[in-house]
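ASSEMBLY PREDICTION REQUEST
Request ID: AP-0331
Submitted by: J.K., bench scientist
Number of chains: two
Total residues: 1084
Priority: normal
Notes: Please return the full assembly, not individual chains.
Input sequences:
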Amino acid sequence: MRIPCPYCGPRDLREFAYLGDASVERPDAAAPDALDRFVDYVYLRNNPAGRHREYWYHGAGCQSWLVVSRDTRTHEIFDVEPAAQKVTAS
Amino acid sequence: MTARTTTPGRFRLPAGGLIDRSKSVAFSLDRRRLYGFAGDTLASALLASGRRLVARSFKYHRPRGVMSAGSEEPNALFELRSGARREPNTKATTVELYDGLEATTQNAWPSVHFDLRRGNALFSPLIAAGFYYKTFMWPASFWERVYEPLIRHAAGLGRASAVADPDHYEHVNAFCDVLVIGSGPAGVMAALAAGRAGARVIVCDEDFMFGGRLLRERLKVDGAPASAWVRAALDELGTLTDVRLMARTTVFGCYDSGIYAALERVSDHLAVPPTHQPRQRLWRIVAKRAVLAAGATERGIVFGGNDRPGVMLAGAVRTYANRFAVIPGRRFVVFTNNNDGWRTAHDLQACGVDVAAIIETRDSVPQSVSAGWNGRIELGSAIVATKGAGLVRAAIVQTPRARETIACDAIAVAGGWNPNINLACHHGGRPAWREDIAAFVHTTPPPAMMIAGAANGAMTLAACLDEGLRAGQAAIETLGFKSRVEKPPKADDEAFSIRPFWHVRESRQKAFVDFQNDVSAQDIELSSREGFRSVEHLKRYTTLGMGTDQGRSTNVLGLATLAHITGRSISETGITSFRPPYAPVAIGAFAGHHRGSAFRPIRRTPSHSWSQQQGAVFMETGPWLRAQYFPHTGDKDWLDAVIREVRAVRTGVGFCDVSTLGKIELQGADVGVFLDRLYVNTFSTLPVGRARYGLMLREDGFAFDDGTVSRLADDRFFMTTTTANAGRVFQHMQFCHQVLWSELDVQFVSATDQWAQFSIVGPKAREALRVLVDAQCDISNEAFPYMAAGEITICSGVTARLYRISFSGELAYEIGVPARYGETLVRVLMQAGAPFGMMPYGTEALSVMRIEKGHVAGNELDGRTTARDLGLGRMMSTKKDYIGRVLAARPALIGPDRMSLVGIRPTDQSQRLRAGAHLVPGNAAIDASNDQGVITSVAFSPSLNHWIGLALLQSGAARLSERLKAVDPVRANHVEVEICAPCFIDPQGERLRV
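STATUS: Completed
Returned structure:
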């Protein structure tokens, strides 16, 4: 598999490390139900067959954390964006 | 004499073929000297010299001969070469003949001609499919000790060399616009179309000669013999600078994003690889487009005695005749269900070979096919059995009128062609059955792959040329190139028609489907009878298609037989999945250079070569090589050296290279906040010029890593991680910064390799250090107290950083200098420290001192311990959020019965402790239910003169001075131990602060 890194261009899978689901958001530790929400955040993941947004780390390249939209069945990649952008934009 | 022995072989035609008759090649089979020509394969040379019985089958030890002329060969397997290079199960049909080639027959004793294990065949009713499962069920304990060794001895193929492979294997990456797989008519046309347009093209063919089918047929292209046409085309491709032609290269896998794996056999056609050349090269080819023009593989027909040496695929017979000028027989019978068999008969006749009869299963054949044939034809007929002891002597033929015996010494079988769609299926798409050619094709190949020619079911030469051209054009036009080839060359469009015929059901003799694994039609019936009716079940129950040939020729026969038995169509029955690799690949090729000391890169510390000169013993810690201890003459053993090093440090001064620690430089207004969220304790309050120990958790609440953070300026921090976790911590910090809190003003960079760092330890550390620190820097206890940190200069102006931190419990400093000064600093330290007895020490002494002081390290930070378990619970801030805080508060992580850190010592001080020993109550039975903890670290303490250890023990902190048994069943060593606080020296920490 090759991932088109927005900074480095298409690069081989071996340059990247995988983390998983990028749809989860770290909960507020001060929330009254923080414990439950953190359990979900750390342990509960969807495992969709199809399009999935997930975190990849370009460790052997620019060291960016990326959000990759990928079809888990075909490995087709639809979109790659820097994870940092997500927060800056909001 | 020489002339006689180098004759081309009894079965070689006097002229013709694509061999070089001017170059005689000597080789040996079972130490008998034989000769062939350059351009031969081992199989063609063996056939030329009349060696037709060359192997014994896997299970029944039946005599077997060469069946095919390609990588689908199931029978002709040999051990090639000798000594460390001995390689079993090599297919003779793919081995290019070279001078000095040594081949040995395998799986037969004492020889292939007289194999005593032939007796297995007498028990063949017993060893049918699934018999292992049924027969060797009882008693269960017999399987491992009796049955399996017995079976493995009786069956099985060649012997692997037990010695290390002396050859090299390389990995190479390549990129291209168009990858063309196969160099037959379709592949060559695709390559021409793409190459002439200026695209970057790679053409791979598993053969050592390009041309595929064009080398094997008596067909004409543009009026010239096909082999001449393809030579000219290849010459042209060779002149195009962006076209790379790779012979002897098998594309064996198709992966995501247009990545193809290919194995180039660089030196397999030579006795020994040339100097600096690898044996094989593993290519990772990234192709924007690919044209799969891999051709088709012929299959036979299942009939009684169809495995007798002399029975061959009809296309292979043609290949041997036309390409190698070898006629593997004197009198042929052709058995066919399609037009292609007739071509073999015509070619044989053109070579002047006797064809006794064409046995055609169809009731009629097109006029164009039989035109010009004046030999015997039996329509609507089939071979039901063969005769012969060893080689075939006759075919027993059932015609519509009678059953008759036709004498012959070779049978050419044409059962149709299977398009080589394997690579197209590696992405998981399912092949589709095409009735008109009675074969599976692939209509939904992976993205950017086009299938052309016989691989796409185009069974005529003209169609192959045309499809190849169109695929090549389509590939480049989508990439923006313009095709400069208008139309394909003219070729004979020989008609192809087939009426499927799979299995001669009248056969009484064993009729084989899979030759390599000895799977017969009877086995498939048995499998179906016992309920294994899906193709995947059939495959696993009978081992159909699970040999090194992967059933490329025979799988379809097996599932057609199954379809017939179960009354389903072939389409409904389906086909087993094709997975990489297409052909066997040596493990060495996957390993490449990554073996032995090159398994992974080695990282060396700045003091490495100096330590080497001192005779240091090194150990691997992750990717690093670190000095473990420095033996002196007079040390009895390693323990002696370590004790000497520790004593020298605790009474004088020593130093140790700690450059392997992960080092990270941080800058920015929000670094303090960032570190507060990263560590359990607080750093935003850390004053400039001070260092602080920190502990990080994972988000699930368990301890992750520890280290120190120093504040060099308001917005400038320097932190260290453990050696083992340096990469992971950095990645985690990047995640926290980029994903969680990208609004923070923080920049950081790894500086592990930029700083050489040494710890200088011992009561005389300050005195020794003073010699090299420049005078204006005050390092007195008042000016530079415990946990101070700052920039200084040493040796008249070299910038350095000094940290007063200790891992040993002694007065200690860590000093960092730019890495290029590392080795010089070691020499300066030795010189400056000489009057104080400066002693270099290694990781062993480092570890002994940290255990004496009770500091945790990797053994305790094992991913299952919490901060509280490690006695560091009081560091956990309650005033802020940090990674892992919430989940660290889960009840199970704070329960009082968790295992926590304790010290242990043997009650009998002469006894040795062992790491890994488990702690059980003294009077309890030694079993898992009484297991209350484990010893994580042990050391012989030179300060206390007995063994000590750290352990994780249930409710440990509450059990001080309790006595337990440390049990070590592996070494059969049980020691009574006493629980103590995890700190054996200077519990008040006074020595740190002097």
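REVIEWER COMMENTS: Residues 2-131 of chain B form a domain with the Ubiquitin-like (UB roll) fold (CATH 3.10.20.440).
SIGN-OFF: pending second reviewer
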